[in-house]
Amino acid sequence: MPEFRLLGDIEVRLDGRPIAIGYARLRHVLAVLLLEINRPVPVDEIVGRVWGERRLPRNPRGAVQHSVSVLRQALAVIEDVSISRRPAGYQLDADAGTVDVHRFAALLREARATEEDERAAELFEQALELWRGELCTGLDTRWAESERAALDAQCQAARCDLTDIRLRLGRHTALLAELSGQAQRYPLDERVAGQYLLALYRSGRQAQAFEYYHQVRHRLAEQLGVDPSASLQRLYQRILAADPELAAPERPPSPGLTPVPVPRQLPARPRSFTGRERELDDLTTALNTAEGPGGTMVISAIGGSGGIGKTWLALHWAHENLDRFPDGQLHVNLRGFDPTGEPMPPAVAVRGFLDALGAGPAALPSGEDAQVGLYRSLVADRKMLIVLDNARDSDQIAPLLPGSTSCTVVITSRRRLTGLVTGHGAHILDLDVLGPAEARDLLARRLGNERVAAEPRPLAELLEGCAGLPLALGIVAARAAAHPGFPLASLAGELRDLAGRLDTLDGGELATNMRAVLSWSYHALAPETATVFALLGLVPGPDIDTAAAASLTALPATRIRAILRDLESASLVQQHVPGRYRMHDLVRLYAAEQAQRDGDDEVRTSALRRLTDFYLHTALNAEQLLQSLLPPIELGEPAAGCHPSPLNDQATALAWFTIEYPNLLAMQRLAAAQGWAMSVWRLARSVTTFLYRQGRFPAALTALRTGEAAVADLDDPIVATGSHQLLGAIFSELGQYDNALRHLTLAEQGGDLPGQAYTDHTLGWLWSLRGDNQRALRYATRALHRYRSLNMVAGQSRELTVIGWYLAQLGEYDKARTQCAAALGLARRHGQVEDEGLTLGILGHIAHHTGKQVAALGYLRQALAILREIGNTYYEATVLDYLGRCHEAIGDIGSAHAAWREALRLYRIQHRTTDAERLDENLGSGPAS
What we know:
The strands form 4 sheets. Strands 7-8-9-6-10 form a 5-stranded parallel beta sheet, sandwiched between helices. A 3-stranded antiparallel beta sheet has the order 1-2-3, with no helix packed on it. It has a 3-stranded antiparallel beta sheet with strand order 11-13-12. About 60% of the residues lie in helices and about 5% in strands. A hairpin with a 2-residue loop joins strand 4 and strand 5. By secondary structure, the chain is of the alpha/beta class. About 45% of the residues are buried. It is elongated. The protein has 7 domains: about 1-165, Winged helix-like DNA-binding domain superfamily/Winged helix DNA-binding domain (Arc Repressor Mutant, subunit A, Orthogonal Bundle); about 275-430, 3-Layer(aba) Sandwich (Rossmann fold); about 435-515, no CATH class; about 525-600, Winged helix-like DNA-binding domain superfamily/Winged helix DNA-binding domain (Arc Repressor Mutant, subunit A); about 610-695, no CATH class; about 715-790, Alpha Horseshoe (Serine Threonine Protein Phosphatase 5, Tetratricopeptide repeat), CATH 1.25.40.10; about 805-925, Serine Threonine Protein Phosphatase 5, Tetratricopeptide repeat, CATH 1.25.40.10. InterPro entries: AfsR-DnrI-RedD_regulator (IPR051677), BTAD (IPR005158), OmpR/PhoB-type_DNA-bd (IPR001867), P-loop_NTPase (IPR027417), Sig_transdc_resp-reg_C-effctor (IPR016032), TPR-like_helical_dom_sf (IPR011990), TPR_rpt (IPR019734), WH-like_DNA-bd_sf (IPR036388). Belongs to the AfsR/DnrI/RedD regulatory family. Keywords: DNA-binding, Transcription, Transcription regulation. It holds the Pfam family TPR_12.
């Protein structure tokens, strides 16, 4: 059965399937022939109706002839449809009932000829159901506009005729919603106004009827300069007089036309919902605040990545608060991120809401804006909840927002809907992953407490593998529940395999396939943004800042910032502190898969080389700013597209190391996996000074051993010497003196003059730690001579400092004080801040041991302030220890214990067991305070 549609887009269907007609002008020629079906249309009229007066083709008659020829071919598959050439023009022969416009007219004629109201109403409704939009969308000639206006007038007249019938049938209450929309669309139509007045009056809304009449009268006077018609004035007077003849007819409504129920469109309450107490409170607080004086419409936008639990939160909260929305709840899945591809157009969502609100086809205006207006009219002043789930962006949502402050709107989206904040004052609620306790509770609710308690270690692995993501936890729970006799350990083993983790998180359907759910967000990205997202999946560390991301991608800083904002808005990265971004573990796995699938090896390798160079160049520059005794490394230029961060002073260097240290270690592991041996060693070298200051010697040893293994096969004596020096220093601090001496002995056999000076310095410290301060003094003196020959101020300052310490340890306090005074002067002249702090600490030590406690307290407090400022927590602990001793010596036990408690905390962090045990004993023997 063929079907020709001219109302709305021009379409041809055969047995429900569309037939392609081709370009727009061809469809317009077809429309002209269909409107004059079974009658010839002169060629000149076809030209005028299709092309108008200003856009004529070079050969108009030839264009019509060509169009007809193509149409004949397209329509050849339809029986009893043909286009023929007649003397008067071209004629399309077909059953007029197959064309929606002609069927519309035929149904109107039949309805008006029918005397039975029920049957007439049915025919009018059938006619109006054909109305999908204005006639021949896209055809913009003067003829088309004229035909369109005439048909619009027929449609409006049909609506009014149908309304008159329904009023006669006593269906005024059901008509209120439709008439409200009609009154908004046709504010000067007095027939519509009269129908709305009558429906309001019969529905017991006399006050509203009076108010509406005065609005119409004012509008007519202001816009047309006339009074209401005599018939409308008479109706108003009869309403004022409560004319009994205006009462509704006493006849029951026909079956199937009962009043529309209050919409209850919410899906079922989610099972196994757990946690989110803060977020639930936030939603309720937003509603409570808006209900106060001067309240506004509540719009809460719940954002977060796919699988984070946005819809569960929205539905759980909605069901918990149903009593606050007595006028109903509307719900729509906008399919913003959906495997079917295209998001739902707002017009489709509005049409669904209108159906739920009782606006039948006859009441629907043809334009999208008019339908939005009708929707807002129907929800005005109602206490309703509107849940807009899975929204794509603010543009998709804006037409669905009511205009009434009585409504509450809850939105979920993977994108951060900042447009709603700026344009509508929305309350943004970003969801993060579940905490460990909440995640465990979710699994326990699905699997039972006994089962999860029986396997604590596999349970911990499952929780770690899901990383708090509710969808991942739900998939794991579903798979475990499907095999109640299987141990959780088997599923935990699958999750343990990082490469196959996303395969494990597959529940057998698209909605429960972690990879598929993430893909819907990925495929919505712009191409450049998608490329950056994939490269971020290669980043080995826990997070990344914009400068590192710019080097990774070889993009300008301004561009990468914009792209990272897009990814944050899409909930694929999280800006957990200003300028720093991280990915959820499972999102990172998916991103890395895309990098492997869509990129090539050269692109990935270049990106990682740039990132390595970024961290390496920035870190080695920062290490020198920390006044390292180690000579600088000549690196050459970084890879093209890499721009290391410019750090200018100790404070910024220390702050950078504090933040980036985990990334530096992760980068070292990646460089080792790539076989970039020299980068592995240099990254180890770059973190040593920072870790030394922090007293994190086991971490430094791990990094240095990784570096040593990487360069073992390199024939580079400078690197070998440097490795032995640093390993010797760290082994010394760890109390592994034999290992330390072995490495430092090897270091003595090589290295340039600065390297030899550092080896002497480190040997001196080793012997001091072993209790031989006399030998330590000899090595320090030799190191000082070498640093002086090199004119290396940092080395001279440090050696004078340690010489003062060794002399103090030997009890030669006067000599020690002299050396420290020289060290302090040199350090202050040349800005060697760390040595200034260390020297002040030694002077405090000397003063304490020579009975000058007040002076000792002054030195130690100055030292403490400096060491804290530069982040040297290792010696901060030592200075606090001595502060406690000084306070104890003058009888201030409370202050002594306060200093010792802080020192004890640092000793424990630094694994300085002997010192910690000593202070434990000191604190145990004194007052609890």
